[in-house]
UniProtKB/TrEMBL annotation:
Pfam families: RVT_3 (PF13456). GO terms for molecular function: nucleic acid binding; RNA-DNA hybrid ribonuclease activity. The lineage of its organism: Eukaryota, Viridiplantae, Streptophyta, Embryophyta, Tracheophyta. This is Ribonuclease H protein. Gene3D superfamilies: Ribonuclease H-like superfamily/Ribonuclease H. It comes from Trifolium medium. PANTHER family: OS05G0353850 PROTEIN (PTHR47723), POLYNUCLEOTIDYL TRANSFERASE, RIBONUCLEASE H-LIKE SUPERFAMILY PROTEIN (PTHR47723:SF19). Residues 55-115 form the RNase H type-1 domain. It comes from the Eukaryota.
Length: 115
């Protein structure tokens, strides 16, 4: 895991205490799977997660950001009304940055666009 990050993320530094980091990652994994629950020991329940419309008279903004291996990043988003109809969308190249920063760019540009 760390070797991959070192190869593809210029800002990444190995943790000083890898065992503690692994345990934190494991706790995060279990916390993320809290909605999957066993049904009488037969396996896991799969739930369909889908877009939900905002309350009447409002719009909902959904955004995303991504980064290529070389660092080139972009963001995009769309706005839909309470009826589910598409109201607008955007896409933007944001330069070289982390995936996290690209996500933040998506939120910022989405809020600007929604104004």
């Amino acid at each position: 895991m760390w070797r991959n990050k070192e190869l593809h993320d210029d800002t990444y530094q190995r943790p000083l205490q890898p065992v503690q980091q692994i345990l934190r990652n494991l706790n995060d994994y279990y916390a993320a799977n809290v909605f999957n629950r066993s049904i009488m020991g037969r396996g896991w329940e799969t739930r369909l997660i889908c877009w939900k419309p905002p309350i009447d008279g409002r719009v909902k903004l959904n955004t995303d950001g991504a980064r290529k291996v070389g660092g080139s990043a972009g963001c995009g988003g769309l706005i839909r009304g309470s009826d589910g109809q598409w109201r607008g969308g955007f896409a933007k190249y944001v330069g070289n940055c982390s995936a996290y920063v690209a996500e933040l760019w998506g939120v910022l540009e989405g809020l600007r666009y929604a104004r």
